[in-house]
Amino acid sequence: MRFACLFGALLLLAPTYGDDEKPPGARARKVDFEIHEREHSCGTVLAITKTSILINDERKGPLSFPFHDRLAAGGVHKKVCAATAYLVSDIKVGDIVISGLMTENKQVFCVDLSIRERPDGLVPPCQLSEKKCPYHECRNAEIAFRDKGTPIPEHLKPVIPTVNKPK
Question: What are the structural domains, with CATH classification, of the chain?
Answer without folding.
Answer: 2-12+31-116 (2.40.50.140)
